[in-house]
Amino acid sequence: MLILLNLLFCVFLLCRYGIWPFTFFTKMGVDGPRPFPFVGTMPYYIRSLNFSFECSKKYGDVWGQFEGRSPLLMVTDPDMLKVILVKECYSTFTNRSTFAKELFGPLKDGLTLVEDDRWKRIRSTISPSFTSGRLRQVFPIVERYADRLVKTLDTEKPDQSVDVKKFVSPYCLDVITSASFSIDSDTTVNPDGPLSVQLRNLLKMKIWPFFVIIALPIAQYFFRLIGFSIVNKASVDYFQNLLKSFKHDHKEDKSRHSDFLQLMIDSEINESDIKDGVEPSKGLTEPEILSQALIFIFGGYDITSATLSYILYNLALNPDAQQTLQQKIDVHFPKHSPVSYEDLVNLEYLDNVISESMRLLPTAPRIDRMCKKTIQINGLTIPEGTAVGVPLTNLHRDPRFWTSPELFKPERFSKDHGEDIHPYAYMPFGLGPRNCVGMRFAVMVMKMVLVRLLQDHYVETCKDTVVPLEFNMLFQPKEPIKLMLSRREL
Ligand code: HEM
Question: Keyword annotations for this protein (predicted)?
Answer without folding.
Answer: Heme, Iron, Metal-binding, Monooxygenase, Oxidoreductase
